[in-house]
Batch of 2 targets.
Target 1
Amino acid sequence: MSVFPKITSLKVVPVAGYDSALLTLSGCHAPLFTRNIIIVTDDSGNEGIGEIHGGDDITKMLQSYEDIIIGRPITEYKNMLNDVRKHGWRVANDSGQGLQELDLSNLKFVVHAEAALECALLDLYGKFVNLPMCDIIGEGRQRDSVEMLGYLFYIADSNKMDLPYLKNDDDSDAWGRVRRQETLTAEGIVKQAKAAQERYGFRCFKLKGGVLKGKEEMKAVTALHEAFPDARINLDPNGAWSLDEAIALTKKYGDALTYAEDPCGPENGFSGREIMSFYKNATNKPVATNMIATDWKQIYPSLMMKSVDIILADPHFWGIEGSLRVASILNDWGLTWGSHSNNHFDVTLALYAQVSAAAPGNITPIDTHFIWQDGQQLCDDALQIRNGEIKIPDRPGLGINLNHEKLEKAHQQYLSLKNHDRDDSMAMQYIIPGWKYNHKQPTLVR
Ligand SMILES: O=C([O-])C(=O)C[C@H](O)[C@@H](O)C(=O)[O-]
Ligand SMILES: [Mg+2]
């Protein structure tokens, strides 16, 4: 008979949180974004938690795991995950296109819902053996503290949209104010970076591009470099530029840009993996991606063709152990690991910290959207970004515990929404009536 705690329940709680009117190639972030929180309990009384993208399909996938895991000892977590992969609910008709054209309707195929279960089971397991998650995953702990990057965005004027964006909700410092204000210039981006640095101490920045003309965005990169000469600076237009434009822009403004993230993508019958390899040959610029290498099939040609240097292997796309396998391979081959993010709560923030703490090698500072959500924590003991870093707490598992009242409030916010899937064109159409997504046209260039 097993002496190990057994799983007694699985609960899926869809939640929503507030966001700013952030602009990206896919449009404008809506005032509320959705996520799914999974809570797994065992008969020792422990609660394990995980968080993943929102949307009805992902909620359904998570709910389908219940019968597969109830009654099993937590030490069987690897077998439980294997059974979930075999028997869990799946969305049909994946074209295999993935995110190479940033088609957000493909997120449900790219996101691996079982990563949230993996997180909750490892949280329980860590609590059982009384060790932080980073000590029991991958090759074990590689560092005690993880560097995060300051993720900057152009922001639309939410006063011009009849939508419930937060306004004047946080007057505690410059960041609290700046993150809700219209930002469409290089000076505005530098102001945003300074405010973010003041609150969080970031040493590196990433600017989300694909919004203005490439030349304008590179001017913002140059202004950031002048303001923060020691910072690593990255621009991510999500493949909006043509190969020729990406080469020309990088040549002109190259010194300010430490590396480029998905500067170009599929064109003229070539896949994004081929185009990025042409770009690298022409510029020698290090390249990061969360678009062309999001699974094991895509990673093979990407590495064969030397299309990328930095793979942002988000554990929500690869699973926790999958992401760390990517980290080990990249490290052995002299390449670099990092993680991509979408909007998220503090459960994901803790997951990024734990996975990154276990990623071997010289990793790149980790993406997080959380600074845009700060103040909406679901846990009382949420991890903090201080001096640009998150310290791994001396607590077992993820190192955080849900506050069920806060969770219920976020669930009520979710229930107030008609649509649960991300749709960046909805808010965008308030800015440019009739606006339609085009993966080769920056959002405001119409
Ligand atoms: O690096 C990233 O965060 C991305 O490439 C894509 C995401 O869709 C991001 O722009 C977002 O969530 O708004
Ligand atoms: Mg990206």
Target 2
Amino acid sequence: MKILVAEDDENSRHLLEVVLTSKGYEVASFDNGLKALAYLKTHPVDLIVSDILMPEMDGYGLCREVKQNQYLQKIPFIFYTATYTSDQDERFAMSLGATKFLVKPMMMEDLLPVIAKVIHAGDQASPQESSGKSHFGPLRLDKQHADIMRIKLDKKLIELNEEKQKLIESEARFRDFAEASADWFWESDAQLKIQALAGSPAGLGFYSLVDLAQTCHSHSPSEMLETLKSHKHFSDYVVHFIDESGKLVYLRVSGKPIFDADKRFIGYRGVGRDVSEMIALNRRVEFLASHDELTGLPNRNLFKQRLSHAVVKASRTNSQVLLLFFDLDHFKLVNDTLGHEAGDLLLMMATKRISECIRASDTLCRLGGDEFVMIMEDASPQDAHRLVRDIIAKFTTPFELYQQRVYCTISIGVSVYPDDTVDPQSLLVFADLAMYRAKQNGRNCFEFYTTNLNFIAHQWLDMENGIRHALKENQLFLEYQPQVENTNQNLIGIEALLRWQHPERGLISPLEFIKIAEQSSLINQIGDWVLEAVCLQIRTWLDQAYQVPRVSINISARHLRSDSLIQALKTVPAKYQIPTNMLCIEITEHALLDDIDIVKKNMRFIKEAGFNISLDDFGMGHSSLMYLKRWSVDEVKIDRTFIDGLQNSEEDRVIVKAIVALADALSLDIVAEGIENQFQADIVKASGCKVVQGFFYSIPLPAAEIVRWFKSK
Ligand SMILES: Nc1nc2c(ncn2[C@@H]2O[C@H](COP(=O)(O)OP(=O)(O)OP(=O)(O)O)[C@@H](O)[C@H]2O)c(=O)[nH]1
């Protein structure tokens, strides 16, 4: 039996559907009369249960249409209404041909028998007996039941809504993750053709996973192909492809095989990331491990490998290898006067000039700073000779550095395998020694290594060891040279001068050993030793009640750059209770050229701690005025080369005069050192310099003798 339900209220309609279906009726339900009528025209039904108030076509309209239709009019029609419930409404309904007029809500056990009865009675039911009201009395649906159904439905609806909300949130969360991640997603079909999804590099869709596997970098291509063939999971494989713009793009991909319900492979799904930048960075790091960043030349590491390689090859082929060691002359000056950037530019230009002279088979490397080396394989000393002459000639042309013309020459040393040595390490040392000799010979020239140079190197090493020994064995001592007023020879100060009494070689000139000590941290140990010895000596004199003048001590450039200087200056004078203003720290202008933080810090400390500062060798530097101002020095010492030149050089006389005038203008003390004769003494005096030092007044004296110059208290 089929019942058509026309009811616009969803809950009521659903309730009727559920109840009637549970009783074995077939139910077709519609939310308005028009739809119900359309259905009736094509489908046979046994009963119509209709609400009255509905959109489009109400229950009255539907009943009228049914009862006027010859094919439908026999279908029993029950009105089931909650709105139109008056007698008048019922009368009207019955007049349209309705079988029953029932008022909502009715209890189910009341409604169902009525429906059953109407169906079985068919259209024989008389209009009189078809009034629900009159026959059954007012029927009421079980309100409780309806409420339970509604609550259940509402609960279901809330649950559905909650699940929908969770789904929306989870989708949004995953979208956020995906958007925040540099990874993008891809899929492939069973044939491994890639369908790249949003965010993936342009053009990837033209590739298959097999194409990518052929380019695999992180694993072997065959391994990746095997993984794909056996439909296995893969993770972080690095591959590459050419994108739409023709750019080589490196990808890191991971993929998971996907199977359908029947466990058939249907493709891969995975993530990918563009790692081109990372790969480029890696390559750069690898490059920098073996190359110099500034010039792009092989660095010391790669040089060593190449040299060993060249030597091995030459020993096999019985050929020669020449090693050239280049060092720019006075390069430091360019940094100091024009700045580090200009220095860098010069290094690049110098690289270009050298490179223009060399053969394709030669390897030019940068060792660091302004030092370059070159390996000439399968070459003769004559080849090297020609080459170094060319290079030196190239460096006679000035360099253009930021609109400034700068002259920078080059010194070159050459050593030869196997003639000089078969050991690559020694080959480098020998080329360096030869270069050093070229510097000593006045720079802007070259030297080939000779065994004589090696002898010099050994001497050097011996001297270093000797100085260490001298420090330990107390072979060093001090002499003191007076600084006096040139008008009355009054003592103004004394300069402590270092001496070395060697047990076999006798007195060794400081010129000889200080230069060597300055090449290593030995000079700092010597500086510390001098400070300690001077302070101890002053304390002894003071205890002996001498009036001790100010004592000058020399601090080397290297010591001024060291962290340990402040510590020594803080502790040693304090230990002997020597006031800091009794000491004058002599610093060469050259030492201040290293305009670095540690020098600034040390200079600031020296000034603030109350030591006097004297600028030694004044006039030899290049930015003298700048240093006077910056470091607020107390005294300048005119360099002895100007004093030497006083006799013959008008220029030197003018310079000395100018320096004295400058010192006067800046209220600085000035000392002329190295005065050896009356002539020099007179000129210096005439130029206005009041304090003098030199053999003419007194040679440096041992501590026991200098006291003759002191006044007793
Ligand atoms: N601009 C620049 N300077 C550097 C670089 N590396 C080292 N230097 C500087 O290069 C200078 C090397 O100077 P040296 O070779 O010792 O001295 P020089 O002035 O060339 O003197 P000679 O070699 O005796 O003629 C030092 O001042 C270093 O600070 C660099 O990469 N760029």
